[in-house]
Write a structure and sequence with these properties.
Mean pLDDT: 80
Distance between the termini: 36 Å
Order of helices and strands: HHHHHHHHHHH
Shape: globular
Number of helices: 11
Strand content: under 5%
Helix content: over 70%
Length: 264
């Protein structure tokens, strides 16, 4: 009984910590929450499934805020979702066929999680250079035929759909960088709003799919939300207080170390 209470308190603290960091830095919660759940001894499949629904719920309110501020490009969101949601369903179908071999599912998810963490770390470190490069080539990208740009957005959505469904990571850091490279003239606020608008249906579909596979711990989810909601509120009030030049390398190093351990 005492051990159970301690674990529940630990889940609330984990939610509070991740919510605080997400609110302060904007870094995707999945890249932080899923490794923490693994550290708690949660199986990879359950950690990813629970975190996907956690992300859908915590980011859900962001859609209304960004829509009200007109920070969402719904056309881009639609093309991303047209690629990511079917890709998520295909990935879930593959996991369903592996359902009898839970060990194989956990091994696949663990490897995918490690790779996604490494990619996220790289995206965080090189984000300023990528943004600079995107701005330098803005004119050439901007004049791409609409059909080709839409097709590239669809492909990016497909890649994100598979990565997010397998690891719960990628919709934030990787998605934002990919969007900026495709649409370098879009403002940062609309970039973030569009990414959130796309992440919610993707994580919801993937999360519900994992729920159907029995990969959700509803008890755990409730305690994570209990801590994360106030954490996001307080963290958002400290945005910009910590120098980005210090924060970015620290986060990238942490994610790279975790990702390397999972992959190798």
């Amino acid at each position: 009984m005492l051990l159970g209470n301690i674990m529940e308190f630990g889940y609330i603290i984990a939610g509070l910590l991740v919510g605080f960091i997400v609110g302060m830095t904007g870094v995707g919660g999945g890249s932080l929450m899923t490794p923490i759940l693994l550290w708690f001894g949660i199986s990879p499949a359950t950690a990813v499934g629970t975190d996907l629904l956690y992300a859908a719920i915590t980011k859900g309110s962001g859609i209304f805020v960004h829509h009200k501020k007109k920070n969402i490009n719904w056309k881009i969101t639609g093309w991303l979702a047209a690629g990511s949601v079917p890709a998520a369903l295909v990935t879930l179908f593959i996991l369903h066929n592996l359902h009898s071999d839970l060990q194989a599912i956990n091994a696949l998810i663990k490897q995918s999680l490690g790779i996604a963490l490494l990619l996220t770390a790289i995206a965080i470190v090189f984000k300023p250079l990528l943004l600079k490069w995107g701005q330098q080539h803005a004119k050439s990208w901007f004049h791409l035929p609409a059909a080709r740009l839409n097709g590239l957005t669809l492909v990016v959505g497909m890649i994100l759909g598979a990565i997010v469904t397998l690891s719960s990571i990628g919709a934030g850091a990787l998605g934002t960088v990919a969007l900026f490279l495709l649409y370098p003239l879009i403002s940062t606020s609309r970039l973030v709003g569009t990414e959130i608008a796309h992440a919610v249906p993707l994580t919801l579909v993937a999360g519900l799919g994992h729920a159907g596979l029995g990969h959700i711990d509803w008890h755990l989810l409730s305690f994570l939300l209990m801590g994360s909601l106030p954490g996001i509120y307080f963290g958002s009030h400290l945005t910009g207080r910590v120098p980005e030049a210090v924060l970015r390398p620290c986060l990238a190093l942490m994610l790279a170390l975790i990702g390397s351990k999972l992959v190798f």
